[in-house]
Amino acid sequence: MTFKRYKSMPLRWNSIHAKLLATYLVLIGLGTFLLGGYLLWSFYMFFMKMKQAELEIWTTNFTQDVTEAIRKNNIVKIDALVRRYGAPDTITLRIFSANGHLLATSAPDIDRQVKNWSDIPGMKIALSNQTVNGVAKGVLSDEDRLYTVRPIIENGRRVGIIRMSFTLGQFQRQFRSLWITILATVLLTFVLCAFISACLANSLAQPILAMRNFAVRLGNGHLGEKLNILRKDELGQLADELNRMSELLASVDRKRRTFLANVSHELRTPVSNVKVTLEALERGAISEPELCDRFIQTAQQEINRLSRLVQDLLYLGSVEAGVTPLEKQSVSIRSLINRAVQTMELRTFPLRLKIDNDIPDLQLQVDSERLLQALLNILENAIKYSRYPPKIAISGYIAGNQMLIKITDSGMGISQEDLSHIFEEFYRSDSSRHSEGTGLGLAISKRLVELHGGKITADSVVGQGTTITICLPIINE
Questions:
Q1: Which CATH code of 3.40.228.10, 3.30.565.10, 3.50.50.60, 3.40.50.1820 fits the domain covering 325-473?
Q2: Contact 291/285 with Cβ under 8 angstroms?
Q3: Do 20 and 201 touch, CB atoms closer than 8 A?
Q4: CATH of 234-319, one of 2.70.70.10, 2.40.10.240, 1.10.287.130, 2.40.30.20
Q5: Cα 93 to chain center, whole Å?
Q6: Is the dihedral of CA 341, 342, 348, 353 positive or negative?
Q7: Could you tell me which of 158, 234, 240, 248 has the fewest CB atoms within 10 Å of its CB?
Q8: Which residue has the higher pLDDT, 22 or 378?
Q9: How many Å apart are CA 316 and CA 30, to the nearest integer?
């Protein structure tokens, strides 16, 4: 089942969509308005510096022309120079004497109303023989003007003062128009970026919301569904991992259900047999000694079978849960296999079964008791299904950084259909349906070998026998 790719949800202020969008909008708004403000400020400062430099150049050039006229007190020439350099609408030029009295001006109608020139911005500083630049209101108006006041120095002595000012009205009107243009551009940029951010936030938030909903459905038991998010970034990788987890959980759930069904089936048979036996004894079979002994023997066999099944289940559960960690130590594999063969002698002697052992003397880091249990389970299966003349061969060799142990029997073999399932819990092939055992031996062996970082495989030819191969890593410590 494929889970719906995106599930639309209302935008809430505490949702990741809203938080992402808010973050983008704040960053975009801050960035665009800071950039617009910086552009306006840079343009303003550039213009002011440019005009200030022009004023300084003009006053410098004018100083060279007017100095001689001031020294000779030629008011006519001074007035002619002021009228030539000054412009009534934009540039106002004033010439003062050394003590600050007005000698000539390009704006006589305004300047004749001024009583005290020392209060005009820049004049006091110029009277201390310092040049000053700045912005101030007009002499008798509220118009902003850029001004320069420069003392005229000759032979180290102040002979006069020049004050030139430039009106900023036209510039301010142009700057206001520019400010509106930049503001409109910034707002348009913000709107476009906000739209792009909303799309980006939605593209990031919707897959996350879809994965959240998918995880909730997994938690509610809808296992095996698939999340369809086609992305190649980290979100796509996370979606792939969620799909893999969903498949894994579905597989585990199927195995759990199968395991529970198998356990129920395996437990039902011995319990039913014991129940039937007890009922028969209760109905009067106990009064017949021969029948009573047979029923009691049957009940004991079923109870022993039930006991082995419970013990194997408990052992398998403890192995899979990792309750008892491996106690690894350096162990001789040859000695361990010899020990397993000796343990099975009581089973092999009555059958006159021969076990050939050709294992190299190699030390491995293993838990000897756990690995011995795995070997015993495999040998028990091999003995159980060996045919006449019974023979089991155990061989081993080193392949790279692995130790391979092969256990081959002379049994009837296993079909290819059954071979891929023999390590599953309670699985039995058709040829072993009526044999004794719990069906957990090879499953336990597989778990024990995997705990050692190895793997176990099986090869079989029907009518010739079966070979179980154990691969164990060689770890040099």
A1: 3.30.565.10
A2: yes
A3: yes
A4: 1.10.287.130
A5: 70
A6: positive
A7: 234
A8: 378
A9: 63
Average pLDDT, the chain: 79
User: Cα dist. 365→41, 341, 400 in Å?
Assistant: 75, 21, 16
Both tokens assigned to 274: 């014991």
| Amino acid at the residue 18 | A
> What gap in Å lies between CA 175 and CA 168, rounded to an integer?
10
Tell me the C-alpha distance between 360 and 22, whole Å: 70
Nearest to 36 by CA among 193, 194, 190, 183: 183
Instruction: Give me the helices (H) in 138-233, please.
Output: 169-219
Which pair of tokens denotes residue 31? 């960035």
Dist CA 432 CA 426 (whole Å): 11
DSSP notation for 339-394: HHHHHTHHHHHHHT-EEEEE----EEEE-HHHHHHHHHHHHHHHHHHB-SSPEEEE
Taking residues 76-88, report their average pLDDT.
80
Buried b (16+ CB within 10 A) or exposed e, 70-98: beeeeeebbbebbeebbeeeebbbbbbee
User: How confident is the model over 130-168, as pLDDT tens digits?
Assistant: 888 888 887 777 788 888 898 988 888 888 888 888 888
Longest dimension (CA), the chain: 161
* Span 99-115, pLDDT tens digits: 888 888 888 878 778 88
* Domain 1-218 top-level CATH class: alpha beta
